Protein: Protein nrt1 ptr family 4.3
Organism: Nicotiana attenuata
Amino acid sequence: MERRQDYKGNNISEETTLDWRGKPSNSLKHGGMKAAAFVLGVQGFEIMAIAAVGNNLITYVINEMHFSLSKSANVVTNFIGTVFLLALLGGYLSDSYLGCFWTMLIFGFVELSGFILLSVQAHLPQLKPPNCNMLTDGEHCVEAKGLKALIFFTALYLVALGSGCVKPNMIAHGADQFNYQDNPKQTKQLSRYFNAAYFAFSMGELIALTVLVWVQTRSGMDLGFGISAAAMAMGLISLVGGTLFYRNKPPQGSIFTPMAQVFMAAFSKRKEVCPSDARVLHGSHSIKGPNSNATISDDMGILHHTNQFRFLDKACIKVQDGNSTKESPWKLCTVTQVEQVKILISVIPIFACTIVFNTILAQLQTFSVQQGSSMNTKLTKSFHIPPASLQAIPYIILIFLVPLYDTFFVPFARKITGHDSGVTPLQRIGLGLFVATFSMVSAALMEYKRRNAAVNFDKTLSIFWITPQFLIFGVSEMFTAVGLIEFFYKQSVKGMQSFLTAITYCSYSFGFYLSSVLVSLVNKITSNSSHGGWLSDNNLNKDRLDLFYWLLAVLSFLNFFNYLFWARWYSRNRSSSSSATIQHDFISKVAGDDSIA
């Protein structure tokens, strides 16, 4: 560890980064956008591979594995939910033991093996149920069971394990190439990197949802899965290609131990009374910040004592028992250690507010694809649009919108707000949550129109009628997804950037799991003796998908106001620390608070 000083002359720690040989990195040779470009290559190829599988998986599960519509939707949402839940494992292994590079390399090969196994099963007839048309002969089709189902789910969850552990480290490793804490000029570059990462994500999604889905539809899923394997292999080549240029943050050991120590120490001293003067707490200094209760700690950088979650401060109380024996770290923690735990607790509500947002995303990858399957997909006399390719529509717009946002909007907003990213991460998240509601409103209106035309007039609408719901959600995702990643990555928790980034992916996981729960609950609540629930039939003309979309629109709107409350709460608590940057934004104004971190 090197030492440096803050603006008041206090010693604080500077985290050393390493090159590929394990020696301290050189800022002239390592890091920056040149190194991050290789990570962007990994992200583009990896999302291309996984998106081609995930976004058209429901078609494969129904047509080849012969699962029912609702069961197939749950297979897809559970798979995607597991991918993002396993991001926590990837973040933990990276920050604690392996580092970003080795975690991506190891689990990248795990993901590659899953794609290869999926391709083999899709190619060999003996590994699948007998051919059968689920639309016309659904009752007589044999569902995949036994060894066939085992091979399918093994391949699928090898992909989930690999992709889940790779995802948070792609973002974190790319962001690690910018020393934004010591070089203010790189703060703007970091913000640009987050936008570039979303651009790479959009490009990968676009190619997957057009070229790869078209190949799957025309030439078979076996070739489509094989191309996904090839794309993942290209991503691994890109990762290895940047080895000489990376700044690598070394793992810190178990990231959960310091947190566990805080809770154990606080519990063991639960009967102690917190002192009114925070300067007497272990790890504090006599220098006070602008806030009268804020003190500066230099164990891991500048972190100020805050008055939220005061019960945790008991972990910092020194017990005077006349014995000079040093207290165990499980009984006495520093202020910085406690404040890092407080930060983790304080961001949980922000994370939770994005779960409903990702439940909406789940519908666009399941039921909305089935909507498209029941519509007129003809573009010309000989060309039909694969329903799964509808999800490419927002990404076509976003590959133009994201560069415009970064080139024009961010500099313009920066002049007004003074924030390096133009707007704060919380502002981006809030705007995206608000816009997402209208995606479901559009979906509900269009599904009612489609169903009415099919049932009452025997008319099949063009597939382009449902494009607005994809377009609106794509715009909302540009704000919420990027804002959430930037918000978590910039939290002042040392050595946990990969794990914090993984938490953002857990929002996707919980959103997809919530989708499965909602589908089951809605079917159970809305069913009776005469007919099944809103989503119980394999025929959308008999289901009431429009009502389900309206339910999600209401939940999304209520969730937005819930977010405003927690954004205000977070802002008010973090503004009590002088290390927080105080901003004014629309969330605070609507919620009745003028400060935002």
Notes: Residues 1-14, 286-300, 578-597 have pLDDT under 50 and may be disordered. Strands lie at 2-5, 11-14, 296-297, 303-304.
